[in-house]
Amino acid sequence: MHARSRNYVSESEVCKLESVPLDFGDYHPLKPITVTESKTKKMNRKGSTSSTSSSSSSSVLDPLSSVLDGTDPLSLFAAAADPVPTTATMDSTRKKRDKDDSPAVGSDFEPWSSKRGEILARYTTTEKLSINLYMGSEKGKAATTGSAVSEKVRTRLEELDDLEEGSQKELLNLTQQDYMNRIEELNQSLKDAWSSDQKVKALKIVIQCSKLLSDTTVIQFYPSKFVLITDILDTFGKLVYERIQSMCVDNRVSLPDNFSPECVNDTAKETCLNWFFKIASIRELIPRFYVEAAILKCNKFLSKTGISECLPRLTSMIRGIGDPLVAVYARAYLCRVGMEVAPQLKESLNKNFFDFLLTFKQIHGDTVQNQLVVQCVEIPLYLTLYSPAIDWILQCIAYRAPEVSKRGNAVFLFVSCCPLFLLSYRYKNDLCRL
């Protein structure tokens, strides 16, 4: 009996596993693995005919998953802690975010006009006041009749120089009511000069009024003086803005509220730049700061980033004001115009606030102390003069700010200058709750 011959090569080909091509595009190590089995059946002993059959089966389920019935406890905990937001929730969140980033303040913001009467009634004086009145010149009238443009420009430049050379009259020994009447006369003179197309005269009146904010001769009256002078500045800013806006009217179609600089024609842009150039030529810091801040909104005619670029620069300009009382009211005015034109730019408001805290120690310096001695003003009374400005700055910072930011600012202010903070009566309760 002879052993049968075997073909080992063919048997090896038959018995080895079937190769399945792997698509690496769908491959992932955590995907269920598919195992392919190959079975070999012998049909008979003689003739050795073999046939193969293949079957595929999925891998066995994860034993841990089978025990938990597919409910992963970590997944359940995460789902309970952070539920999937619904469409309504997402819409309400989006509306809240859009409201916080809105370029205009809402009705929940207390306007400056509601504080005006209270400040005027609280900060009064019986001492005599003084004021400088601008005296008009004939040059201003001649400038409007000149035929040559170059002559008109030269005359207007000479008019601006006249203000520096003392074309003004000082009125002394005024009572508080007389002082307020004179300020109202200046406000009316500003409107009359503007309506008669004497723009340079109007600018000179505003510069003159801004200079009054550097005078602290009667220091207890300074908050009321600030209210009166800034009324004139607001009037000037409104007149300039409306003037440039009227130049953008094309075919009796005015600019929309949310216009872009591309919608502004070249004539209006040139006029706007001309106003900024005139203001940049003002020599003294305080009037230059106040007049530029008054027309801050006009930056919208020039570029989309004009306001966001000017606010930090104006904030830095205030650092050059040596008197801490004058400086804090300059910061309050910048917050006023900032909230009107760009309330979403809170970075400059916060910078204003912390700059004040850094300069608070100036109150104890020799300059301030000597001034208080001369005017016979005690420190407690002097600190109350800061209250309206601090109150307004804090209101602007806290408006629609995160709760964490409100608490952080309040604690930092309390540690830095606790006595002054307590004088801002509106925030006493907030501080006590911390």
Automatic annotation (TrEMBL):
A GO-annotated cellular component: endosome
Annotated Low complexity bias: 48-64
Subcellular location: Endosome
InterPro entries reported for this sequence: VPS35L
GO biological process: endocytic recycling; protein transport
Taxonomic superkingdom: Eukaryota
Region (Disordered): 34-64, 86-111
UniProt entry keywords in alphabetical sequence: Coiled coil, Endosome, Protein transport, Transport
Leader sequence segment: none
Coiled coil: 157-189
PANTHER family registered for this protein in UniProt: ESOPHAGEAL CANCER ASSOCIATED PROTEIN, VPS35 ENDOSOMAL PROTEIN-SORTING FACTOR-LIKE
Family in the record: Belongs to the VPS35L family.
Name under which the protein is recorded: VPS35 endosomal protein-sorting factor-like
Organism: Bubo bubo (Eurasian eagle-owl)
